[in-house]
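Predict the assembly for these two chains.
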Amino acid sequence: MPKRFLPLLALLLLPALGSTQTVENFRLPKNYIGQLDKILVEMGQDLNIRFIFDQPTLKSYSTSLMTDNEKTVGGVLKMFQSAWDLTILVGKDGYIYVARDKLQLEQLQQNKEEVKEEQQQSRKKLVPVKRNFLLSGEIADQANGERIPFATIVVEGTTKGVTSDQNGHFALEKVPADTAVIVITYIGYHTKRIELEPKRENPPLFIELKQQSVGISEVFVTGRKDDKALQQSTLEQKIKMSPIALKVLPNIGEKDIMRGFQLMPGVSAANEGSAGMYVRGGTPDQNLILYDGFTVYNVDHLYGFYSAFNSNAIKDVQLHKGGFDSKFGGRLSSVTEITGKDGNAKKATVGAEVSLLSVNAYAEVPFGEKVTSLFAFRRSYQGYLYDQISGLYKSGTNTVRPPTMGGKSSSTSSYFYDLNGKITWKATPKDVLSLSIFNGTDFLDNSPQFKMPGGAGGGPPGGGMGAGRDISLSSADFTRYGNIGASTKWTRKLNETLTSNFLVSFSDYYSTRDERRSITVDVDGVSTIMKSGILEKNNLFDLSFKNDWKYVFDERNILEFGAFGTYYDIDYTYQQNDTLTILDKKIEASIAGGYFQDKMLFFNNLLSLTPGLRFNYYSATDKIYLEPRLNASYLLTPKLTINSATGLYYQFANRVVREDVMSGNRDFWILSNGSEIPVSSSLHFNLGLNYDLSNYLFSAEGYYKKNRNVTEYSMRYRSIPQPGSSVTSTEQFFTGDGYAIGLELLAQKKAGNFNGWICYTLGEVKNRFPLQSDKYFFANQDVTNELKMVGIYKFGNFDFSASWIYATGRPYTAPLGGYTLNLIDGSNVAFYSVSDKNSYRLPDYHRLDVAASYRFNLFRQKGKLNAISLSVFNLYNRTNVNSRQFQLVDDVILESDISYLGITPNLSITLKF
Amino acid sequence: MRKLLHFALIFTLLSCEETDVSEFLDKPVVESYLYAEGSPTVKISKLIPFKSDMILSDTNIDQLKIGITDLTTGQKYPLQANGGGTYQNADLIVQAGNTYQLSFPYNGMEISATTLVPEKPVNFKLSATSISIAERGVAPSGSASPEMPFPVVLNWENTDQSYYLVYVKNVESVKEAINSKENKSDDFFRNQPTNSDHYQLNPQSFKFYGMHRVILYKIQPEYVIFFQNNSTSSISITEIKANVENGFGIFTAVNSLSVYLYVGKP
């Protein structure tokens, strides 16, 4: 290899990678004066682009590039061509070749490969100074300094690897030699290789990863491409999500993390009415949602059409589909771990998004070098999309209409909002303190208001009547629900191997539904209020602490342990007419406990075993609940992995859904009391096989869950109220056992301008409530077959995507027969005899969504930060059935369908400043 | 690999649990109110099948052997068919405090239901005997006249949280509407069953002028559930199971007291 190509070597060693296909449009950041070879080296470093040239050739050229004249790289290259007749090529391999003539260009291209090889050979010749040493560091986003959790750090060519913690820290034990190459990967970011330099000291590394701008040019990417929104883990039954990459997927109004997960195997997709996730046959309340460490109890916005999480405020989401670690508990099915963004550490940024549903604004402000902050706010407005969705539910609303009378009707108002805030203080290199707040609330108010002022123009006041009297009548249809929570976390890295987290948090879920008709009569200042209708209230307060420790003996033995405690205060009341209390539950309870888990690697790191134990003391039953867990994975070949997990899981707080198709399902949280609402449990068995190639992933995972003490609230067999006591819920909860079983298949193309996946889930969920029958029935969430296809295509500044979902219809209960009764008030009312529970199936669900977005540069920024997106939900306007309504008319039972949303286009605009 | 096979085995074994199979069974619908001091009528009807493949038996609803037994006295009263599924026995006069049982065979099943006849409501009072309500719908908007006296409250004694139902009916033969646009409204209204000891009358509920009969029914728990929300959606459709064994409908006893209220013009 000719010596004169050596300067090129230095350029290739530059760690940073360029990241856009329109390198020519890059603006010059400053003036460059001097020899051309030096200018290109400097410019390459400034702009993260790679020039390939023959140094002795270009040394002979000198120039001055002034930003007043030459604004872009493309302009500069044209100038080189015209001024010196140089041959320029922006290669498909991503390098910019600058040559004297075509012949030299060919030589440069040929020699590039040789250089790479030479580079590798030369590394092999390096003599390590240290062996088996500990390498630690921190991973951050290059653009904003945001620490990156759950990034993978591995020693190239080995199976040694760790993941970064919530604060982006990592400690890699026993790195074989300080001549090794470290590879850092994280979805949505360019993979980075760090070539270690043999030195006596190895101070902690600070590694910055660069976000994959959505229109990544293939040529600039080396190694694995991880610009996917969703990635299935091969060692655990887990899905990772990069919220920044979510925008490429079709959406309806909002890029939504929960809807994103619903496109992956094992998470049911045919639930337009629930943002909560049905993971492997579990219900949304069996999915633990942790937002910066505190539990979120309500994730629904607008009848469940959207989730309460603003993706602009979220850094990372991990969904553990089952068999999760001992550090998580309190739920039967799955865990969704959400990490909020810390905020830009480098400069203040603000951004805004407008869609047909909501406006969304956020600000990221650093204070000094140690404090970062982020605030995000989103609020819906009652526009086209809001009306479309709420109209689905309102059209059938059977609200009590006030009698026609003179008076004014005020306009109705409904909206949702959410806000996220986080302040992070990196107090010392070893201590990080953060405060995180989240609030999401929905107001649905369909109440017309009437007011009749008395006196003026009224009938003649008889006997002193009339004057000074107002009658106002209102028919309420008001719902308010949401969740507020906050956590304070202190992370201390005692040394490179021992880290602790201390977290104190609270979470408050509130829900009020007021469907009461009230009449207020004001006589000479004395008001009388009369109310009839339904009032439903639920409040859950959770105060928690957690203390987690992680000790890395070495990369083959990582011990985690901790303690936790939660105080719960839940009450729920359901009243009719102020007097008839149908349900009234109040319970306070505490859970306290601890856990440990030890991840151990055996057989040259091929086998990973993580045994663990979690124990809980629950005050309401005064019992201890032990949860043994075991996770294992084995690398059959470097590409073929087998993983399995088993464990016992208990749940103490349950969400009960009182289904109401007329105005959206109502749910409420209650605590197990050990008697009519027992503590439920689930035993998991999971097994998975993954074949992971550089561009493709093939995966098959199976699960079986045996559930005990499953509780369901049912109005089916209503209890006969007993005089002498107000009505209690005792006989309205059904308890039994059940199981969920399933197989998930996934084929994913991970890289390239065209990528996407196909997945299929075969599943069955059944329950049995001995009080109803000895036989198993299909649970409401049972879906036999579910097929999902997602395709994403990048073309220039455009992204196109489409997703198609097919799912077997859900089970439902239908009447077998009907009859009418004359009640004593003379009215004639229809009643039904019903089929065995859920013995019928709704028609199959399927839907195609498409989206196109265009990125553009508006404010002279680097990269394309602004976008305009058009998406169409349910493109072929499939009428998917939510439920059926029955009506007895003239001795015939009529059946009609309540449908989900039809074709709905949406437009959104993203601007960043 | 062994694990995989083991898992596959579990999967196969456990994925075939038996599911309930729906079947339609011809059960009778009973409708009978036992008013204290009255002679009850029992009406039997058949279910209306939802689908054509749901076949009813050929049991004739006018040829049933129906009897009511006074469980307090042991006296048995066979009922005679009056046609249209109705049955009666003029000798049976319902006594407050007694328990009655209905029973008859139907389609190979024994149908039965039991109810206790409540005592009359005690200390039932109305806070006014007449009220005045201005004509609605004729005055200009925002100038309607008030009703007096207000509020009108019904009180009764309820020490054991029994259920009561208030029913108000206009008894005039010629109806004069309070709002001329609402002259086709029902001439009655009622509250939801309550275990309270009072109820406020809502002036807006009155649709007609003239004399109204205000009836306070003391009802039994088995009847209350028919007044609760009655879902017609596949998500939450429910089957009301009252007190008729092997059948549907209601066999319940009622006792009542009436007072009168006059609604006049101001």
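Chain B touches chain A through 90 residues (CB under 8 Å). The longest strand of chain B covers residues 248-264.
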